[in-house]
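ugh ok fine here u go
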Amino acid sequence: MTESVTLTVTGMKCGGCESNVTNKLKAVEGVLSVKASAKDNEVSVEYDAAKTDLDEIEDAITDAGFNVE
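structure:
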């Protein structure tokens, strides 16, 4: 089952930050698409709920060095 979530993520300042978050999330099995916006402090993720969950997504963002609000 495909689900979507938009998270408020702080600490992203530039396109490099967006790429870092995007790459970390795309490495998570089950993540289908990612859109990160430093300007809006948001990360939108579409994922397969049978393969991953919100905790894993939040952990990947934290591992990338950013905070999920």
